[in-house]
Design goal:
Blueprint (H helix, E strand, L loop, with lengths): L4 H28 L8 E4 L8 H10 L10 H9 L4 E9 L3 E8 L2 E5 L3 E4 L4 E2 L9 E3 L5 H16 L5 E6 L5 E5 L4 E5 L3 H12 L12 E3 L7 E3 L1 H7 L14
Parallel strand pairs: 1-3, 4-7, 7-8, 10-11
Antiparallel strand pairs: 2-3, 4-5, 5-6, 8-9, 9-10, 11-12
Length: 250
């Protein structure tokens, strides 16, 4: 092989090209790593509602490493997405020294138990919120299903001027809906939409005319429902017998 110049010349050309490419890459890497290309500004595209300027500043100060060229965009995006109220983040470079950040925040739909929230996508996240929200509770992994049913319950009950305040799913998949300032509706595990529709259709001509505070409505019957009215229960309760008196002996 070494005595065949017709083979050595093309090989040498290839080796020179590879060496030149490696040198150029090393040179470019050295140039972009110079302090001459600092990251001068981090700009959030739209002012966030829940993410504070202090949280953004902390990410910039402690999480972003490198200059304009060497900054790891994937790591930067991950750092912003670890903020409690950030659902998704997008980051991109903008010449000559700016990082543009777009934050998609969670939109709160309900509370999940006592310590978390559910967003409008049915995702549970750990955020602090002082506003009024309905309460969801159920086994792990059911938040999205509850959010979907909540939309139906709110729409159906809105036709009669009512609104769901709490939704609960038991481990056996039985549904309960507590109305805002109203009774608890026991829907059970089957035909929950049909049972709620029966309640909605009958409400105006039955419970709305009752004029009593209703505590509980059991809709798990095939042709009707049972109602618990505390006031009526007290009226029907038998009087307790008084203490027996001893008769005096003659």
């Amino acid at each position: 092989m070494w005595d065949k110049p017709e083979l050595l010349n093309p090989l040498a050309t290839v080796l020179y090209a590879v060496a030149a490419a490696l040198a150029a890459y090393a040179g470019a890497l050295a140039v972009v790593s110079l302090p001459a290309f600092p990251l001068r500004e981090v700009r959030v595209a739209q002012p966030p509602v829940h993410v504070t300027p202090g949280e953004v500043e902390a990410i910039v100060k402690h999480e972003l490493r490198g200059n304009f060229f060497t900054l790891d965009l994937a790591a930067a995006r991950s750092a912003f997405e670890r903020l409690p109220w950030v659902r998704r983040a997008a980051v991109r470079r903008h010449w000559p020294g700016r990082l543009e950040v777009a934050l998609e925040e969670h939109v709160p739909l309900a509370r999940w138990g006592e310590r978390a929230l559910v967003n409008t996508h049915g995702e549970v996240f750990a955020g602090a919120y002082d506003g009024a929200l309905p309460l969801f509770s159920g086994p792990a992994g059911t938040a999205k299903e509850i959010a979907i049913q909540y939309a139906y319950f709110r729409r159906a009950l809105g036709e009669i001027g009512l609104a769901p305040g709490e939704l609960h799913v038991s481990p056996r998949r039985a549904w309960q809906v507590k109305l805002e300032n109203g009774p608890t509706l026991e829907l059970g595990r089957e035909q929950i939409e049909a049972r709620l529709a029966r309640f909605v259709n009958a409400y105006a001509r039955t419970l709305a005319k009752l004029g009593r505070r209703i505590e509980y409505v059991d809709l798990r019957y095939s042709n009707g429902f049972a109602v618990r009215v505390p006031e009526l229960a007290r009226e029907k309760a038998p009087a307790r017998p008084g203490p027996m008196k001893k008769r005096a002996r003659a």
